[in-house]
């Protein structure tokens, strides 16, 4: 008879196809956490299940597909599971992509170099690391701001890597928010914050898709990682067609509208389409939602790559609509913002 100690110390072997790579998960651990603990980098972004980036095919074995849902189910090669939610109950075989080695996750202090209120409820923070301690990251990744008592808040990096190591964050004020209240209240230049990162995987620049036309969909401060990706395109040698659809309710929500117009004027490969859902009468741009605007412009997306960043509702809607227009499901990348509790 197995003892409680035997059960608690059990390890479940995870096998990835088509590579055949294997690693172990402990009881109660998600597949994604187990993979990252072993240095196996799998597609992921939000770690909450909202962005759907970590989907994999469940080929064999026993697992609980959803940490807060059903207890178990039978393996089904036609069924996708989210690696950030799925917890193995035994040995499991999954089919999913593997990525190149992750950049090291580090903690570092940063000094607030500048604070720019770009809208009534949006602050751009520019942060400076200590000399010689620049954070290594890729455009599209995010960092955690470390607060008191173990609390942390996640924010996308809004710039491509800079020679001086400067980091940019776009902070939207949320009433009662623990960190946003600090940013819009007592935070001031030269104050010190603690960061940990980078996290997430956005590989829209991967070699096998680097030449395909890129569609960028953002709402609100979802522009932050999109801005980093655009800056990387500007700095790089690849001139793939890039179209940005940035959505808001009213013109003031497009807080870097002038910068986006400037990019469109300076770079013939870049196109900018602002979209408002509650546009005033004098608005001459697009009306509605960003995902609808994409489908109005493209009847066949089979050769495109798309990245969406915004609310879970927008991301889910964009995925459904763009795939219905021919976009390969594997060519849709996303980061869904979920507001943390105060």
Task: Give the secondary structure arrangement, pairings included.
Blueprint: H1 4-8, E1 12-17, E2 22-25, H2 31-37, E3 55-64, E4 76-82, E5 87-95, E6 106-119, E7 122-128, E8 142-146, E9 152-156, E10 167-172, H3 178-183, E11 192-199, E12 214-219, H4 223-235, E13 242-248, H5 257-266, E14 270-276, E15 286-287, H6 290-297, E16 305-310, H7 312-324, E17 332-336
Parallel strand pairs: 1-5, 12-13, 12-16, 13-14, 14-15, 16-17
Antiparallel strand pairs: 1-2, 3-4, 3-5, 6-7, 6-11, 7-10, 8-9, 8-11
Helix pairs in contact: 6-7
Q: How would you characterize this protein structure?
A:
It is globular, with a radius of gyration of 21 Å. By secondary structure, the protein is of the alpha/beta class. The strands form 3 sheets. A 6-stranded antiparallel beta sheet has the order 9-8-11-6-7-10. A 6-stranded parallel beta sheet has the order 15-14-13-12-16-17, with helices on both faces. A 5-stranded mixed beta sheet has the order 2-1-5-3-4, covered by helices on one side. Helices cover 18% and strands 33% of the residues. Mean pLDDT is 88; it is low at 1-8. The chain folds into 3 domains: 4-95, Roll (Ubiquitin-like (UB roll)), CATH 3.10.20.30; 106-199, Beta Barrel (Elongation Factor Tu (Ef-tu), domain 3), CATH 2.40.30; 214-336, Nucleotide-binding domain of ferredoxin-NADP reductase (FNR) module (Rossmann fold).
Order of helices and strands: HEEHEEEEEEEEHEEHEHEEHEHE
Q: Helical percent range?
A: 10-25%
* Count of extended strands: 17
The global form is globular
In brief:
The protein has 342 residues and is of the alpha/beta class. Helix content is 18%, strand content 33%.
């Amino acid at each position: 008879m197995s003892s409680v100690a035997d059960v608690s110390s059990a390890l479940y072997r995870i096998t990835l196809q088509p590579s055949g790579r294997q690693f172990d998960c402990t009881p109660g651990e998600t597949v994604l956490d187990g993979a990252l603990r072993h240095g196996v980098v799998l597609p992921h972004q939000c770690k909450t299940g909202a962005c759907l980036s970590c989907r994999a095919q469940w080929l064999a074995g026993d697992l609980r597909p959803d940490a807060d849902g059903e207890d178990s189910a039978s393996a089904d090669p036609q069924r996708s599971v989210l690696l950030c939610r799925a917890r193995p109950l035994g040995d499991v075989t999954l089919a999913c992509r593997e990525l190149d080695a992750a950049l090291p996750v580090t903690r570092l202090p940063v000094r607030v170099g500048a604070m720019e209120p770009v809208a009534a409820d949006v602050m751009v923070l520019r942060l400076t690391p200590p000399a010689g301690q620049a954070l290594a990251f890729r455009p599209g990744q995010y960092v955690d701001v470390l607060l008191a008592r173990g609390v942390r808040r996640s924010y996308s990096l809004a710039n491509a890597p800079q020679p001086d190591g400067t980091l940019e964050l776009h902070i939207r004020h949320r009433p009662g928010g623990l960190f946003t209240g600090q940013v819009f209240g007592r935070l001031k230049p030269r104050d010190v914050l603690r960061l940990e990162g980078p996290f997430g995987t956005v590989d829209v620049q991967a070699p096998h898709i680097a030449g395909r036309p890129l569609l960028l969909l953002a709402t609100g401060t979802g522009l932050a990682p999109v801005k980093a990706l655009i800056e990387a395109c500007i700095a790089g040698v690849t001139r793939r067609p890039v179209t940005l659809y940035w959505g808001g309710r009213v013109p003031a929500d497009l807080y870097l509208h002038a910068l986006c117009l400037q990019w469109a004027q300076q770079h013939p490969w870049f196109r900018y389409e602002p979209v408002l859902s509650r546009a005033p009468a004098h608005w001459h741009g697009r009306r509605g939602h960003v995902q609808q605007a994409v489908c109005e412009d493209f009847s066949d997306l089979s050769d495109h790559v798309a990245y969406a960043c915004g609310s879970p509702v927008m991301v889910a809607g964009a995925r459904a609509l763009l795939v219905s227009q021919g976009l390969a499901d594997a060519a849709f990348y996303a980061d869904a913002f979920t507001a943390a509790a105060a």
